[in-house]
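Protocol step 4 of 5: obtain the predicted structure for the target chain.
Materials: sequence only (see below). No template structures provided, no constraints applied. The aim of this step is simply to have a reference model before the mutagenesis design in step 5. Sequence pasted as it appears in the construct record:
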Amino acid sequence: MIKIVERSECRLATRNSQILAIDAGGTMTDTFIIDNNGEFVVGKAQSTPEDESIGLLNSARDALSYWDTTVEEEFPKLLAGVYSGTAMLNRLVSRKGRRVGLIVNKGMEDFHRMGRAIQAYLGYSYSDRLHLNTHRYDPPLVPRELTRGVTERVDLFGNVVIPLYEHEVAPAVQDLLDQDVEAIVISLLHSYKYPHHERKIRDIARDIIKSSGKEIPVFASVDYYPVRKESHRTNTTIIEAYAADPSRETLNKISKRIRDHGATFDLRVMASHGGTISTKANELARTLVSGPIGGVVGAKYLGEYLGISNIACSDIGGTSFDMALITQGDLSINTSPDMARLVLSLPLVAMDTVGAGAGSYVRIDPNFKSITLGPDSAGHRVGVCYPEGGVETVTVSDCHVVLGLINPDNFLGGEVKLHPERAYEAVKTQIAEPLGLSVEDAAYGVIDLLESQLRNYLESMILGKGYSPSQYVCFSYGGGGPLHTAGYTKGLGFEDVLVPAWAAGFSAFGCGAADFEYRYDKTLDINVNDGASEQEKIAAGRELQDAWNELMEKVAQEFEKNKFSRDEVDFRLYFRMQYQGQLNDLEIESPIQSFKHVGHWEDLVQAFEEMYTRVYAKAATSPELGYSITGAIVRGIVEVAKPKVPEEPLEGETPPQDAYLGKRRVYWKGEWIEADIWEMEKLKAGNKIKAFAILESPATTFVIPPGFETYLDQHRIFHLKELK
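Step 4 output (structure tokens):
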């Protein structure tokens, strides 16, 4: 499993690969292949942004080599494949999407361009937010000249104030077609309460497009995201047309490449809500952020197996540091996240991300002579030490090489030979000399600064949500995670710190552990006063049930695209509720499967108040305010094969001699010291490793500095302990 046995042992077993999980990051592409026994192997290769399918195949070949088999032999056996990656997000961030036209209410033609005020500040530091000359609006996804208004108005209750002027629709659509738009988006005020006008415009637009001989898609917001908040809903529907729908081509190319090598399954994609959906899904923008989500889902899956309910997730890749909390076994869902400096209406696993990773650029601020890290990175080229060149700015990885933390001859198992002399010279000229430091002290300062910042980010995320690190077990993963785990967890007092031996492919592991799941949301405005009559409560419950029925039908239709019948789907009902007049609602799993009588209303209220007590405090409950149901949610789930967590017999604290690779000089806190080097895959369950030690794997490096020791348990998970 996961490269933990010798190749000679792997040859003895006949493998039947069943699940292929893919995490195509900005720097590396990880594959996670699971066989019919639930055992798995991890592969790693450099990403190929120009054609992600190339990096995928290289990574799969790397993984299968440890089972002494090939892509051509195993891909025909696969039953399913799950993809996560950054292609769609990169398309959005780089503003390289479709030419989209937008139809809105007359008089509202500028609201997308203006956006919410917060969009001018998203992604900026506090100091930059204070100065008008250091922050700006990004260009809108749809420019003003491609926006048209039509007369109609619906109020917030869904009442038609001004009927749709249908005679204005055709000229608006034709005008956009004359300007060669490649898609048309329709978004009207309060359409989630009264969808008929948007759908009428949609139907007229399709007729005009057909008569003009063109073939361009039309996106009405109510067909995709029937939720409140106009800017969020409009941005999300535009992204569907601008970046998500065109990304089907990328996914189709990956799917075709896999099929060319014998696979027969329909590729699934990791979605932002924590499940996987088909590439044929209606709302593909839900896959905008998929890679980091996989890691959180994997942590939840592993936590459930280990009986750990409170987990602080930390993921370091080449470009970013991603953090999330799992509290009492539940993921927190943010229904109004921001991304690429846009506010959106997507259910997204709540995460905090900062641009600090192993490939982040290191620079000297010319004004203050201080070190700055990121947020940009070298991507798959790693750093100045990369053999093909192309990177001139020092990265964090260059500092790793200078300090001796990374073996330059064992990067990706030796497939890529790094050049330490290049890293040394770059650190010397760009960092050390401007600061008046030795090269080693400059490189160590960079790593120390990075870990200090990551520690502050992680601690502030936990404290900001009202918790303490001592209440959580920290999971550290990602290709760069084990390098820095000790540094960014030091002194925080976590209950335990876990580093899976397959940390480098943990996000892909999460993709393999995710359910096949669709989630649909709908905004509601159901108000029930304190002391309401039974008839009022029943009417409210029936309105909620009607919304659930509508959403269940949408979920069932999506599964039918992949040949799953309604009977095979596990429907899970949720609702959002708040006390009347409050600003924030809560998402609660429904205690009932269908609303039938007034007693079920009391069940809903009780479930809400139990959740409210957990999130806030029992003293804060305010039933005298009455209740508002603000949304209905349906999740449909089909069970799929998942990876089996390794289980090995304990073999004592002393590591086997053949796992010892010797010593290497490492620069640490102002002096060169001798570090013990161990081959991670040859360590046995029960082994204890003391500092200073470096555990090497083809996919990652785990550093055990002074003041720490680690223990490998029977599940191939390292427990990092800080010594008192």
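Step 4 remarks: The radius of gyration is 27 Å. The mean pLDDT is 88.
Proceed to step 5.
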